[in-house]
């Protein structure tokens, strides 16, 4: 009687394995697979035979066997690796896993990675992940001493879902690069992470991103964050946004910042202006800069503030402002 695959000795099975059909390879029993050395799997079994292993067979392999053919396993085979098998990989082994192999793992599999395994991910591995994979690891990427958040590409940052930025810690948000990440993100994404932005990130926000913010978003910023808005950003704000800036911040702004807001200042903001800020408002300015004639609510100045207006400033006031 002819022998079945499960009846073959290990030595004979190895000698003929590359001649077997896919269906025959998948008849190999787990007890037989246990006898396969990592050298036999990595060297003696050729492609495409190595790709014939079924998902159930993949689940029976140990770490050394998996590593032996790590560059040969198909997408389906890599995604058959269980969380238990993945947990056996040391962080140092994750770090040297070829990127082409690692990114075959599903987002679900990556979510099973331990903190140490995530920390071991290198720049090439992270930068080649798809949006779902990034979402699975983003909240656990480190910022110090290795800035793994910095590994994200512009496209990956743009693809972060509204949930994903919300799941980033303050330190992770502040590890995002201004040029590669912040300025390329949508207004909706910025809105989610706004309160966590560092003082150095605020000036990077684009007019489009700022225009997508609500006045309540602006109001929720700390005084220190607000003071980092540059004149071009303040000029781009709608009146309701500019008027959401606290008076505590207004009275600490420099001359250029106040000049940028002249046409949008509310009564409360006007009346909190310091003498030095009023004195610094130019009587005339080169277009498109604002000057005293653009000071919409100048009539709301207190008497003590009006007293410091210079003759040159008064000379440039319009009839509307003088009324």
Keyword list:
mainly alpha; 30 helices; 323 residues
The DSSP helix count reads 30
- Share in helix: 40-55%
Task: Calculate the terminal CA-CA distance, rounded to whole Å.
Answer: 113 Å
Approximate strand percentage = under 5%
Characterize the overall form. rod-shaped
**So what's the oligomer here?**
single chain
Rg of Cα set = 32 Å
What profile does the largest beta sheet have?
none
Strand and helix map with partners:
Layout: H1 10-16, H2 22-25, H3 30-33, H4 38-44, H5 55-58, H6 63-68, H7 75-78, H8 83-87, H9 91-95, H10 99-102, H11 107-111, H12 115-119, H13 123-127, H14 131-137, H15 154-159, H16 163-167, H17 170-173, H18 187-193, H19 207-211, H20 215-220, H21 223-226, H22 231-236, H23 239-242, H24 247-250, H25 255-261, H26 267-270, H27 275-279, H28 303-306, H29 311-315, H30 319-322
Summarize the structure.
Helix content is 47%, strand content 0%.
Task: Describe the protein's architecture and organization.
47% of the residues lie in helices and 0% in strands. It has 30 helices and no strands. The termini are far apart. It is mostly helical and 323 residues long.
